Every structure is written in C-alpha cells, then in structure tokens.
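User: I've been trying to design a sequence by hand for this structure and keep getting stuck. Would you show me what you'd pick, starting by listing the structure so we're on the same page?

Assistant: Good idea, let's start from the same input. This is the structure you sent:
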C-alpha cells in the first residue's frame, strides 16, 4: 500500500526507527538485567561453596538440615524460592539430599574432577577419633562452617543452568577430596522479576513510541512550512496573481533551491501570459478597424446590388462571415482584458429574472421544436454589467439549442440560495465524454469533432462566459448530470 502523505511517511519512518531502537534497547536491557541477576546469584553460590572451616563428621548429619534452612538467607533469595542441596562422599554415596532435589537433574559432568593425592578434608568414617585427654566433653562450635575449606589447587565451583519439569534451576557444584557438594536454586524468582520488567517494557515502549510518533508528526508540520507556502503561492497563480513570489529569507537551506526554481517558473509564466495577452489584445484591437471598414463597405455595396441577384446573395454571405469575424475579435478583446485584469464593468442593478424571461420568449422563434420548461423566481437581482451578463446567458441558451437533440427539451431554473443567485440551464444532448468535460472551458476547444462538425462556433463562448462570471465574483460550472443531458449553472452574488 502506497502512502500519499509525505508528512505521514516521515512520522511512520520516525516510528519505525524509534521502534527498532526501543525494541533493541529493551531486549538488550532485559538480557543485561537478567544476566546481572544470575551473575549475582552465581557469586553468592561460589562464595557459599568455598567457605572454610569444615565440620567434623560426627556433626555433619545434624548440621546439613540447618545449613539447608539457612540457604535462602545466605543467598538472599527469600523463602519462597525453592533451593535444593545434595552432598555425596568421595565414593558417590549420598550423605544428604533435600526433598526439593529433583530426579530430573542431570548429574553427568556436574562435578569437576576430584583432586588426587590431597589430604582429606573430611575424616574417614573408619578412622578412630583422637582420645579426649582433657577430661571435658567435646561440643560442636556455636555455628559450624560448611562446606569445607577449598585448598588453593581445588578447581572452583562449576555453575550450570538446567531446565526440568519443575522449572529452570541454577546449580553450583564443587568437588573436594572427600566430598561432593551441589546447591540448586530455582530461577523462578528471577523469572518473576524479569516478567515484571518485561511487562514494564511492553507498556512503556509503546507509550514512548506513541509520544515519539506524535512529536514527529508535530515537528514535521513545522518542517514542511516552506512546502505549505509553495502550495499557497501555487493556489494564487492566476492571471492576476502571477506576480506572487515565495520569500527565501526565512526559508531553510534545504528548500532554497526548490523555491528559487519555483519563483523563476513564475517569472517565465508571468512574461508568457503578458506577451500572449498583449498579443491577443493588440491583434484584436488592430483587427477592429479593418473589419469595421470591411463591414461598412459590404453593407453599402449590398444596398446597391440588384435585389434577388446572385451578387446580393454573395454579398450577404460575406457580410455574415464578417459579422462572425467581428464577434470573434470582440470576444478575443474581452478575453485579453480579462487576462490582464482590466475588464471594465459598468455595474448597475441587473434583474436576471427579466432577462431570462425575455430570452425564454425569444426561444419560441429561435427553437420552436424544443419543449421549454422555465422555473424562474421573480425579482432575482444582482449588481453587474447588464450587457456582459446578458451575453453569458445568451451563450448558454445558444449552446443549449445548438447541441440539443431533435425534438429535445430545455429546462431553465433560476432561484435564490442564501445570498447567491443560481441559474441552471439544462438540455437534452449526447453524453459528453470525460475528456471533453475537463476541457470544455478551454479556449478554441470544441470537443469531439463527431459532435461538433455540424455546429457553428469558435470555442470561445464558454471560456468568455466563465471569465465574465469570475469578473462578477461568481462562477460558471458544468454540473454532473445523468446521461443524455447537459447542465450549466451560473452563480452570482445577490445585490447588497
């Protein structure tokens, strides 16, 4: 799916980059926190397994249960964390095994290789105790130390992680000459803490991502300010607004070249429009005099010709063509004035209802074969040039007649809507192709030749009518209609 909003793409790009960074940061942070907790547990296990002062064999069995109970405090895990203890002698016989020690633990390779030829850390059971010659009873110390002291050449404890049916365990094991000791600590406490941290990340990362995306959306609005200025300038590019320029002084350097190119384009367009407007205006103005002279000579010669003669008919045809050429020149002159913004309007109060009523009466003579339906609200008054507005309405009626179907119809609807007068002229016609609808107001454009080859016209009427409507602060539009009909609407502001 292609996103057509540049601002949205910027925000989404920031969101993806920030999301990736936050996800990576969260994952690495979570892993580092987990490793730090496990490393701290490993340090405590190693320190506990390497304690000095071994207990005597006669108190070993009574000491181990108490030692197991002290493990949560020694390791700082809390009483809710399961901890298991296993002690074996040098022959692999179990001296002590806690209830939590799982049979799923894999003991293969758990203990490092036992040192050889070292003195025993535990007295052998078959050895005789030295006689008590002091005459006092021997008693264990207040708190015997366990496990036995690790000589310097004893390998350090081995720490591994095993997963069983009861969960994940961190196991520390050490092997002495006379004994093997293993302590297994469940990682469920760490897992619970990491689950909380994970939930915090899962909540905080989307919130931070939303804040970053919103900030990117808002910041992009300011970053795209030069583009908005260009859009405003482009919208003002009309014949009357070609002198508009986008200021460069306060623009970011990244947009300077774009704005310079746009301003240069406006300068070229302004020169071209002025040249074209001046040419058409000058040409129309220069043609007025010879056409007027030609028309006057033809009229005078026509009066001298013999009535009903071939010469009179030819002169009459020439006079019609000259009159048509005079109309074209007049329209070109008006269009050139409109392009230059110099269309002079003799503004008076104009009663559109009366003008429409007069034109409808003339329709009986101009198009007696058409069915005319008129719905004209009386008293529709606007302020404008009566002659030019009459010309607009006559152009619309003329097109409705020329492009109508045989035995067709015409509908005129004039009404007030708010502070606007709307005049809609509809007629039956062939369907106008979409390509023609887009260009129907272009100058000298007459659409599909198949539809227009038998219809007289220059392609200037609708273009001129629209310019006259714009000069009166109104507009002329081609309405979307059903097939086999055409509808134009002229909208003008009411007289204040």
């Amino acid at each position: 799916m292609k996103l057509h909003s540049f601002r949205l793409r910027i925000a989404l790009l920031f969101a993806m980059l920030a999301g990736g960074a936050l996800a990576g940061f969260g994952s690495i942070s979570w892993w580092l926190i987990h490793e730090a907790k496990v490393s701290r547990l490993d340090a405590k296990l190693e320190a506990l397994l390497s304690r000095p002062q071994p207990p005597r064999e006669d108190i070993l069995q009574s000491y181990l249960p108490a030692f197991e109970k002290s493990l949560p405090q020694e390791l700082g895990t809390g009483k809710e964390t399961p901890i298991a203890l296993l002690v074996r002698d040098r022959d692999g016989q179990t001296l002590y095994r806690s209830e939590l020690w799982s049979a799923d633990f894999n003991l293969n390779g758990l203990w490092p290789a036992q040192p050889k030829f070292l003195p025993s850390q535990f007295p052998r059971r078959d050895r005789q105790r030295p006689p008590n010659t002091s005459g006092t009873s021997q008693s264990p110390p207040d708190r015997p130390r366990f496990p036995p002291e690790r000589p310097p050449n004893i390998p350090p404890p081995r720490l591994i992680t095993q997963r069983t049916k009861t969960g994940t365990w961190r196991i520390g094991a050490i092997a002495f000459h006379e004994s093997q000791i293993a302590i297994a600590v469940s990682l469920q406490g760490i897992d619970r803490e990491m689950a909380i941290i994970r939930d915090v990340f899962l909540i905080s990362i989307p919130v931070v991502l939303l804040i970053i995306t919103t900030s990117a959306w808002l910041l992009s609005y300011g970053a795209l300010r030069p583009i908005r200025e260009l859009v405003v300038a482009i919208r003002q590019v009309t014949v009357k607004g070609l002198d508009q320029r986008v200021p460069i002084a306060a623009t970011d350097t990244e947009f300077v070249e774009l704005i310079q190119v746009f301003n240069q384009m406006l300068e070229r367009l302004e020169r071209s429009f002025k040249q074209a407007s001046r040419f058409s205006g000058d040409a129309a103005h220069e043609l007025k005099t010879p056409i007027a002279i030609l028309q006057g000579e033809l009229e005078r010669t026509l009066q001298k010709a013999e009535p009903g003669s071939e010469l009179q008919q030819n002169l009459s045809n020439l006079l019609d063509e000259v009159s048509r050429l005079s109309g074209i020149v007049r329209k070109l002159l008006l269009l050139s004035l409109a392009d230059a913004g110099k269309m002079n309007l003799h503004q008076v109060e104009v009663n559109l209802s009366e003008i429409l009523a007069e034109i409808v009466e003339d329709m009986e003579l101009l198009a007696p074969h058409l069915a005319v339906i008129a719905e004209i609200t009386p008293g529709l008054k606007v302020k404008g040039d009566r002659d030019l507005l009459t010309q607009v309405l006559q152009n619309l009626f003329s097109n409705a007649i020329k492009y109508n179907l045989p035995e067709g119809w015409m509908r005129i609807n004039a009404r007030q809507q708010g502070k606007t007068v709307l005049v809609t002229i509809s007629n039956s016609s062939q369907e106008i192709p979409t390509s023609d609808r887009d260009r129907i107001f272009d100058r000298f454009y007459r659409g599909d030749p198949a539809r227009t080859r038998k219809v007289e016209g220059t392609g200037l009427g609708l273009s001129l009518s629209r310019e006259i409507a714009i000069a009166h602060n109104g507009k002329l539009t081609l309405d979307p209609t059903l097939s086999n009909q055409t509808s134009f609407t002229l909208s003008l502001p009411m007289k204040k």
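That's my pick for every position. To get oriented when you compare it with your attempt: The first helix runs from residue 6 to 49. Confidence is low (pLDDT under 50) at residues 116-144.
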